[in-house]
Batch of 4 targets.
Target 1
Amino acid sequence: MQISFKGKRVVVAGGSRGIGRSIALGFAGAGASVSICARGQAGLDATAGDIRALGAEVHAVPCDLADKEAIAVYVAAAAASLGGIDILVNNASGFGGGDTEDGWRKGLDIDVMATVRASNAAIPHIERSSGGAILNISSISGLGASARSASYAAVKAAVINYTLSQGLMLAPKKIRVNAIAPGSIEFPGGLWETNKTSNPQLYNAVFKSIPWGRMGKPEEVANAALFLCSDQASWITGQTLTVDGGQSLG
C-alpha cells in the first residue's frame, strides 16, 4: 500500500529525536512539508538536515512545549512557513517518572497541556485543510497501573482519554484524531539504550516481558503514524493503536 502525503503540511511537536524524528522523516519521505520543534538546537539541526536530504521542505525552530505562549508562537510560525497545517503530531513528553511533584508537573505540563495547547492552536489551520488529522503519542503505560512510573502512566492515560474526546468534538469539522500507544522503544541516546548500561536489571526485565523478543524501533511507530494520518484511515477516529510487539498482553 503506497501512502503519499504530497502537498500536505505536517507539524511534529517534539520531532528532533526518537519516535518524533522517525515520524517527521516518514512524512518527509512520503512527500510532505514538515515543521519540527524541540528544546535542543543540535538535534533540530541534525533532523532538519536529514529531512532536507529527502528533498522535503522543513521548518525547524526551538520551542519549550511546557511554555503556553511559546506553543502558540511556534504553531503560528509553522503555519506561516508551510502555508498552512494539515496534520499535527503531538509527540513531546516530560517523561515524569515516580509519584513525585516534579514527575507530575512535567507530565501535566508537557504530555497533557502541550497536547491540548498545540491542538487548540493548530485546529483553526487544520479546519481549512482537506482531510486534516491530529495524532497524539501516548504509551502502553497509560493502559494500566504502574508502580514504577505512576505519574507517567496517569498522564498518558489522560492523553488516550483526551483523544476520545477530541475525536468526538472534531468529527463535525472533519478532523480525525487518533493516538498511538508505543511499547518500549530503543534508539541511540534514548531511555532504553541508556538503561541497558545504567540499569541492566530493569532493561533485561522489560526486554524479557516482550513476547516479540526485542525492543521496538522508532520507525515501527512512524509507520503506524503515517497510516493513521493518511486517507487509508479516513473512517478511523478517536482510536488508540498499540504498537508494542505484544508487550501489553503480558
Target 2
Amino acid sequence: MTYGEILFRTATSFVALLVLTRLLGKKQVGHLTFFNYVTGITFGSTTAEIIVNRQITLLQGISSLVLWSLLAFIIALTGLYSVKAREILDGQPTILIKKGEILEKALAKQHLNIDDLIMLLRNKDVFSPKEVEFAILEPDGKLSVLRKEELLPATKKDIKATVTPIQRIPTELIIDGKIVEKNLIKMDVSVAWLNQQLKKASIHSLDQVFYAELQLDGTLYIDKYQDSIP
C-alpha cells in the first residue's frame, strides 16, 4: 500500500465516519447507552481496519460502515416506538440507595462494590449514603442522586424571595482577545458598550482579555491573561 493510498483511505474513511455519525444523531455521539458505546467502538475499529488493512478494499470498508450504521439506525428506530425493545437495548435505571439504605442485591447485580458506589457518590458531592434519599444508576452508567429533603439547599421559592424571569443565558463575548461578533448581535450588545465595560475594568486592549462573558444580570464577567493568583 502506497503512502498516497493510505492518505486517501484515511481521508475517505474520516468523511464517511463523520457523515454516518451525524446521521445517527447526538445520542450516539454522547454514548448515552451501552449499545451506543459498543456501536462507537465498532465504528472506530472498522475505520482503523479500512485505513491500514490492504486486504480490505475501500469500497468493502465503507459498505461495512454504512451497513452497520443502517442496522444501528433501525434498532434505534425500533427502540423509539417500542418500550419493550427500548428496555432490552438500553436497559433500565437501577435503584442502588433508597432512603439512606444501600440495596446490596441491586449493587451486586450491577457488578459494583461499595467502593465503586462511594466514589460515584463523591462525584456528586455526596460523602455519605446516609444523606441520600434515592441513588439511581442510569443506563449510561452515571449515578443520579436525590438528597434527603432536609439536606437540600433552599430555593428562592422556599424563602419567598422575588424571582426574576431569566431573559438570557451567560454568553461569551470575547474569546482569546477576539470579539465574538455573532453573539454581540444575538444579545443586542454594541461594541461601544463592550469597550465601556472593559475600560471600567481598567482594560484598554482586547489583547489583555482571555475570556469575557455576558451574565444573566447584564454585567460582564472578565478573565484577563496572566492573572496574578496569590
Target 3
Amino acid sequence: MSRILLVRHGQASFGAADYDNLSDTGHEQSRVLGAALAARGIVPDVVVAGEMRRHHQTAAGVLEGAGLPGAVEVDPGWNEFDHLQVLAVHDQPSTAEGESEKAAFQRWFEEATLRWTSGEHDDAYDESFTAFASRVQAALADLAASLPRGGTALVLTSGGPVAWVCASLLADDAPARTGLWMRLNPVSVNTGTSTVVRGSRGTTLVAFNAHDHLSPDLLTYR
C-alpha cells in the first residue's frame, strides 16, 4: 500500500498582523514532528506543501527535525480556504454579556463558516465551499495516483483540507461530509497527522489528528 501523511501546519501567529507566519511554538512543533517521524523510520518519497508561508515553514522544520534534504513540491490544491474572506462577508456578532473575546470570535467563525458551507451565498465568495472541496479532492487524487506502490508522501497543509479529506473518506454523501467537516476542522491539532492509505481496497483513512509526538506544553489548536 502507498501512504499519505497529512500534517496540519505548526501554530501560526493568531491575533498578529500577519497570521501566515509560525510562532516559536509552531517552529518547535514542526521540528519535534520531524524527529518523531525519523524515530519511526519514516522517510517520505515526496514532500508536498500548499502555497502558504506557514506550510513551508512547517515543512522546513519537519525536514530539519528528521535530518532530511529540503526538497519540497508545491501544490496549491492543498491551500487553506480564505477564512478571512469567509469572516469578512459575515457581520461580526456582538459579544454577549459575560462572553470572552475568544468565545465571541469562535462563535463568529462558526456562524460565518456555516454560511459559507450552506451553498446559499456562493456569489459572495471567490471560492465556494463546493469548489474548495473539489480542489482538495483533486489534489488528493493526483498525489495518490502519482505514488509508487509502497511509497510515502508527506503533505504540509492546513486544518481545512485535512478535515475535508477525512470527512470525504468517512461519510457517504455531501450533506454528511459537510457536517463531519464542520466537526473535524475545529479540533485539528497543530502538526497533528492524519494517515491515508491506498491499496487494493481503494483509498482509506486509517488515522486522524495523531499528536502523540507533542508534549502537553506544545499542544495547540491555532
Target 4
Amino acid sequence: MPSPGKTVQPETIPFGSLALFLALTFGIAWGILAAFIFLPETMVGVFGEITGQHPLFYLAVWAPAIAAFIVVFRLSGIEGLRRYLGRFLIWRCPRGWYAFLLIGVPLVFVAGSLMKGNISETGFPFDSILSFLGALILIAIKGPIEEFGWRGLALPLLQRKVAPIWAALILGIIWGLWHTPAFLLSGTQQSAWSFMPFFLGTIALSVIVTPLFNASRGSILLPALFHFMLINPVWPEAQPYDTYLFALVAVALVWLNRKTMFTRKYSITEVIPGKRTSSP
C-alpha cells in the first residue's frame, strides 16, 4: 500500500487532447458568432439582436471552459473532473503576485489614462452601488470563466512540449485569433475596437499570466482573477496606452522570471492534480 502522504500518479490528459480542446473551443464560439454574421436575419428573428449580454454571446465566451470540461470528463471521468475543478481553489502564490493583481493592474490603467490625457474625464460609471455590484457579478461569470480552458488545460499541455515563454506566445496567438469573430459582429464590445492592438495585447497578457500560473502551482483561480481585473469597468479608458504598458510589463516579467520562463524544469504540466492517499 502507498505510504501516508504519498502522491499517486494522476490520470494523464494526453498532449493530443489539445487538438480536441481547440476544435471544440473554436467550433462552439465561431459557430455561434458566424451564424449571426452570415445568417443575421434568421438568427435575429429567432434569438434577437446579439449583444455582449446576450445568452448566446455568454455561451460563446464560455466555449474554452465547456471544451475543457468535455475533454477532462471524456478522458478521466467524474473523479478526474472533480480534481481538475479543484484547481480553482488553489490560491497560494508569492505575495508579490497579489500586489501586482490588486495594485499593479489598476495602476497600469491609471498610467495609461494619464498618457492618453483623459484621466480628468474619468468618473464612477454607475448610477448606484447595486448596479455596480451587478455589473461585477456579470463580469465575473463571463470572461474569467475562459481560464478553465486557456490556463486550466491548454497551457499545462503546451508546457509539456515547450518552455513557458514559447507556450505563452503560442497560446496568446491562439487566444487572440479566437476573438476574431467578435470584431466582425456589430453589437459586441469588440466591434468598436481595433483588432491589431487587441491581438498584440492578448499575446502580452498571455506572457504575463504564465509565470503567475506556474508560481501558483497551476491555479485556475489566480489567472481568472487576473482576467477579472483586466475587464473591471471601474478602471479608466486607456486604449491603446494600456496595451503598450502591459507589453512593457510582459517584458519585465520575462526578465524577472528568466530562470523559469526559458526552461520546462519548473513548468506546471498537470491538468489533473495528483491525489494523496493514506494507508488504512
